[in-house]
Each structure stands twice: as C-alpha cells, then as structure tokens.
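User: My instructor asked us to take a sequence, write out its structure as tokens, and then describe one feature of it. I'm not sure where to start. Here is the sequence I was given:
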Amino acid sequence: MPPVDRLSSMLEHFRIRASLFHAGPLCGVTTFAASPGRGFLHVLRDGEMSVTHQQADGRLETVIVDRPSLLFYPRPLEHAFHNAPTEDSDFACATIDVDGGATHPLLLALPPVVVIPLDAVATLRPALDLLFSEVDAGACGQRVIVDRLFEVVLMQLFRWMLDHTDEVGLPAGLLTGLADPALARALVAIHEAPGEAWTLASMADEARLSRSTFAARFASLVGVPPAEYLITWRVTLAQGMLRAGEPVGLTASRLGYASAPAFSRAFSQRVGASPRAWLAAAVAVPDGSRTEVA
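Assistant: Let's start with the prediction itself. The structure tokens for your sequence are:
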C-alpha cells in the first residue's frame, strides 16, 4: 500500500501567497509590524543576528541566530532584527498570506516563531540557491519567480516539520496529528471530503481504531475533539469558497451542512461574524499590500 500523502490534500485547497519585500543587508534595528492574517518568512544565508518579539505574557523574548537559518512567523507578530549584517549578507524576506489564515489549522498548529538552521534541511538547498540566484540577477520576471520560490521553500519546510515534530517542539495540533500514521489516515480523508456526513464512528474507521481510542488519541495529538476539528476545517475552506464568489447556500451544501443557517451559525462561532459580514470586510482589504521595512 502506498504511503499516505499527508500534505497535498490540505495544501491544494489554499492559495499560499509569498511576496518578496526585502533582499540584501539590513542596517541597525529593523522592525516588522504585525498585520492581520499575515506571516513572515525570513532567510538568512550568511551572517548572524538577534531577533526580539513579545511573548503571549508580554515579556520580550530574544532569539540568537548564530548561523544561516530560516525564520518563519506563521501568524501576525511584531518582531525586530538587531545587529543584522550590514553588508555582504545573503538575506531575503517575504510576507506570507494564506487563505483562511486566521483559522487555518496548519498555521494554528505552529509556535509563534520557527527557527530552523539551513543545514538541518538539506532539501531546501536547491530552492534557496535558485531563489538567491534570481534575487541577485534582477532579470525580467524576477519578483514573480522569487515569490513562487518562497512558496516552494515554505511547503518544503512544512514537509520537513511533519517528519521532525519533536525537534521543532510543536504543540498539539494538525502537524502532530498528521505525524501519527493512524490519525493521518482520518485527517487526510476529512481534508479530501469535507462535505461527507462524518461521524466519530466513520472517522475512527478511517483510522482503523476503536471510537474511544481514536477520540482520545485525536484530542491528545491534535488538541481538539474530532468534531471540533471538522468544523474548523470546513469554516477555513468556506472562507476561500466565499472569496471566490460562491453563494452562502451552495457553500453550506458542499461542506455538509443541512441548511445555510446551520452553516452560518458554525461560521459565526469560529470567525466572529456571519459569512456575508466576514466577506464584506475581507473584500474591503486590498490584496497584495506590501510590508515596509521600518
């Protein structure tokens, strides 16, 4: 039996948009502001520096980056680079926007910042070499190509973290669930067919576990009960469908809800606004906004 592809069925539903906004050396203290729904991916290919950001309890945390590394802020969090190299630095930064970013279970499963030494992820080298080659060349189409390469780097990072959950120190969430072979079968099935009439029994059958064992393992590794995860996944998908112009009623039907009101209640509970109110606010925010280095 071929191995389960744990990422494709999830990632194909979402448009990950990476946008290069800085390449080259940095001077002094450089601050990256937090914007709703936006993350950051920084690649330091040469040099060293320190990074500061506030923890959930308000304390300032300092991360020392003493070798070439990739720094990923999956969710909005203001951070600042100190003592960054001022010359001869292979350094590039991109903003990361994901459809349904506020509720995307993949991003919610990550710590506030992930710092990975580049030599720990050998599969990143070809994409990074091509990325910096394009940055240096400045040829026609550079921005589009670099943006796509950043997206490749991010997806390769997800793949690596999936196989190194202990090294990254991931909290309970989607990646730790996908790292479990039994839960992975159930999660992939849910990702591929979110509109199915899923029950605890049918999800447990996919995992080839008893209902009690499945429910306990799911809650322990994913951090929420199976039914709660299913709702979150459906609401996350709904955001992309609504953005694409799909009517609320059709979205509700495709995601397995018996009626539009039932879907709207679930959506409002997760997002804090009705589907139509959320969509009105979402389209009011222009796409492709750029982040400036302060």
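For the description part of your assignment, you could build on this observation: The mean pLDDT is 85. Try explaining in your own words what that tells you about the chain.
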